[in-house]
Each structure stands twice: as structure tokens, then as C-alpha cells.
């Protein structure tokens, strides 16, 4: 990784301000990767919640997928050594809102064997209700 070599050289040269800038860039890159991973799991989570609502039923497979997505989001969001979380409740909510568009598009291909276009499917489900349900699954015990 090029940034690590640059960081090493800056430290050896005593350029601590430059080194701090590189550390901040590395931290931001790491955080962005975590957000991207959480967003991917959020799409899967929302997809199955949308399908449950639109079809007014569930399957074992959907339940397992929902549970696994929630666990992976919780795992990715947890800071292991420093403690705490990468994303706040508000940032998780924003990530779910961003993921919703992808989820509704994917769900339109699966609900009733692709019967609905995304815009039609959106009218069948309550976007806010689904997003807050997902948030409550991720952050149990916190009222949203």
C-alpha cells in the first residue's frame, strides 16, 4: 500500500504534520470500506423486509437472510479494540436510506416473480416503516 510507504518516509523525515495527514486519509479509507460493507448488507436486509411486506408472508430463507444481515452489520459496525461503533444511529439511518433504492429495485425482480416495477412496488410498501424496522433490528432496545 503506497500510503504506508509514504507514511514511513514522512515519519523518518520528521514531517509529523504530513504523517498525520496520511493517517487521516488511511482512517477515512478504512471507514469508507466499512460503510460500503454495511451498505451491502443493508440492501439484503431491506430487500427481504420489502418482500415480507409486499407479499404479506415470510420464508425461513428470508428470516435467515435478515438475521445474518443484521448480525453482519452489527459486527462490521463494532470497533473491536477502541470500543464503540463506527457509525452512529443517525449515520446508520442514512446508510439504510441510501440502500433502500437498491433494495426496492432488487425486490421488484423478486416480489411475485417480478410483477412490479420499482415505482409500483414502492407504492405497496411503506418506505419509512421498513427502514425504521431495519434500524430497530440493528439497534435493538433503542426506540427510533
Record the SSE blueprint:
Layout: H1 2-12, H2 16-55, H3 60-77, H4 89-110, H5 118-124, H6 127-138
Helix pairs in contact: 1-2, 2-3, 2-4, 2-6, 4-5, 4-6
Task: Encode the helix/strand succession as letters.
Answer: HHHHHH
| Poorly predicted parts | none
- Helix- and strand-based class? mainly alpha
Give the overall shape.
elongated
Proportion in helices: over 70%
Total count of strands? 0
Biggest sheet layout: none
Distance between the termini: 40 Å
**Radius of gyration, whole Å:** 19 Å
Strand content: under 5%
Enumerate how many helices there are, as a single number: 6
The averaged pLDDT comes out at 93
Characterise the protein shown here.
It is a single chain. This protein is 76% helix and 0% strand. The protein is built from 6 helices and no strands. Helix 2 packs antiparallel against helix 3 and helix 4 packs across helix 6. It is elongated, with a radius of gyration of 19 Å. The model has no long low-confidence stretch (mean pLDDT 93).
Quick structural gist:
The protein has helices at 2-12, 16-55, 60-77, 89-110, 118-124, 127-138. With 144 residues, it is mostly helical. The longest helix has 40 residues, at 16-55.
Can you tag this structure with a few keywords?
144 residues, mainly alpha, 6 helices, 0% strand, elongated
Amino acid at each position: 500500500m503506497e500510503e504506508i510507504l509514504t507514511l514511513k518516509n514522512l515519519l523518518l523525515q520528521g514531517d509529523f504534520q504530513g504523517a498525520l495527514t496520511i493517517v487521516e486519509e488511511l482512517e477515512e479509507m478504512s471507514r469508507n470500506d466499512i460503510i460500503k460493507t454495511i451498505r451491502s448488507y443493508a440492501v439484503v436486509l431491506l430487500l427481504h423486509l420489502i418482500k415480507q411486506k409486499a407479499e404479506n408472508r415470510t420464508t425461513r430463507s428470508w428470516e435467515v437472510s435478515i438475521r445474518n444481515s443484521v448480525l453482519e452489520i452489527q459486527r462490521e459496525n463494532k470497533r473491536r479494540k477502541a470500543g464503540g461503533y463506527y457509525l452512529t444511529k443517525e449515520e446508520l439511518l442514512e446508510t439504510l436510506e441510501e440502500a433502500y433504492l437498491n433494495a426496492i429495485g432488487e425486490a421488484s425482480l423478486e416480489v411475485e416473480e417480478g410483477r412490479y416495477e420499482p415505482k409500483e412496488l414502492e407504492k405497496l410498501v411503506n418506505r419509512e416503516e421498513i427502514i425504521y424496522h431495519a434500524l430497530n433490528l440493528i439497534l435493538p432496545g433503542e426506540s427510533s
